[in-house]
Amino acid sequence: MRNPVPPPPPLVLVIDDEPDLRALYELTLLREGYRVEAAGTLAEARQLLEQARYDAVITDMRLPDGLGMELLHGMKLQQRPERCIVMTAYGSAENAVEALKAGAFDYLTKPVDLKQFRTVVASAIHDSHHAAVPARPATLQRHPRAALAPAQSPAGAEPLDPAGSEALDRLVGASEALRSVKHRVAKVACSMAPVLVRGESGTGKELVARAIHACSHRSDGAFVAVNCGAIPENLLEAEFFGAKKGSYTGASQDREGYFHAAQGGTLFLDEIGDLPLAMQSKLLRSIQERRVRPLGSTQEDVVDVRIVSATHKDLASDVHAGRFRQDLYYRLNVIEIVVPPLRERREDLPALCKALLARIAQESGTIAPEMSDQALTLLQGHPLAGNVRELENLLHRALALSDGGVLQFDALDMPAVQPVQADPPPSGSLDAMPADLQVWLDQQERTIIARALQDTGFNRTAAAARLGLNLRQMRYRMSRLGIAAPASGCESDEPA
Prior knowledge:
Elements: E1 11-15, H1 19-31, E2 35-39, H2 42-51, E3 56-60, E4 62-63, E5 66-67, H3 68-77, E6 83-89, H4 93-101, E7 106-110, H5 114-132, H6 137-142, H7 162-169, H8 176-188, E8 195-198, H9 205-215, E9 223-227, H10 236-241, H11 258-261, E10 266-270, H12 277-289, E11 291-292, E12 301-302, E13 306-311, H13 315-320, H14 326-332, E14 335-338, H15 349-364, E15 370-371, H16 373-381, H17 387-401, E16 406-407, H18 437-455, H19 460-466, H20 471-481
Parallel strand pairs: 1-2, 1-3, 3-6, 6-7, 8-13, 8-14, 9-10, 10-13, 15-16
Antiparallel strand pairs: 4-5, 11-12
Helix pairs in contact: 7-9, 8-9, 15-17, 18-19, 18-20, 19-20
């Protein structure tokens, strides 16, 4: 029996007008076992692309007869399957962002680090092959939903495997708004472009991030979720970048940071808007250079992670207000996915209720009841300001109180919806238009924060929790508004 012929090594096209650099890239790739062809101009590159299909294309941004971006646009119009990596001059963040938005798989900054170069090329080739391998029929039979609807497998996107399909199925609903989200997830998953997921609290932003990961070539790697607002400020650097033994008090051994833990996978930065400005600067550097330096170390480590971030805030407004770095905002917001609130897709409520009840019942070891028409009507009329998270809470309570196979109207025990009434204006504050709106707003904020502090005995952590803030935000507001705690106030809530 004749042995099967092994497939040829991956073929890579390198485009750079500097002969020394071109030779360096060729030699590096040849040592990795790839076949390599090279070009020094756009014209040469286009001629080679007409003659062959490549596994990856690496192009410099500036060439003697044009820009690498022109080649990228042309390949996109021709719907070519090659993953394209763009090389740009150091510090040209705008060029990198533009390339990613135009469809580049990834980018490298010059001077190119060869270790990073090899990692990015391997990732691009892996993604290209991952997309080209069809799913096994047996797998498809076990997962009938793997045959995606058009909204889940858009034109120009690669067919998704069962894992990606199942991740999209967890975004329950068939409304136009949600189908648009699924379409975008499937389309952007195949690149390394950073994604910013924006939406109100409780809309399912982490589910969207997990779907991006599951639909990508990184699905076999780790998905590391980080709540940026829940980490004490003095621990941020160690948590993100790691720390060496003895680098700070209590560091009894080496520990890896989030970037190291997500190596080869996806790093999900939830509530990115809560990061303090100092940490934003350090995060930007790590994202741009693909390197992190653990605390107490003199060496930088190359990291290979895809960044997906999320926020319920209006980051553009925070940029204008000086609360968020503009350069980091543009770096993170290469692709934006807006998750609609539940009130904008109420047609998804029946399917959402069914899925949530099934999960709740499974976790509690009971049989999921059916929704009565009365119960569903009641939910349809409820504001659901907390979105899917609030809906799940209501269903939890309903299931606990229900004693039959059908979820009844009375069992819901929903909080009464009171009509929204305007608060009475402070004495003399609205008799006339305030001369200075900001001063007036600061006064109202100062009054509310002072009242919360008094009610909690000046325990800043407790006062912050009552107002939906964290301790860092409370400190900032007290400092800005000139609110001082009394000398006898409780300071036990402060970290050492």
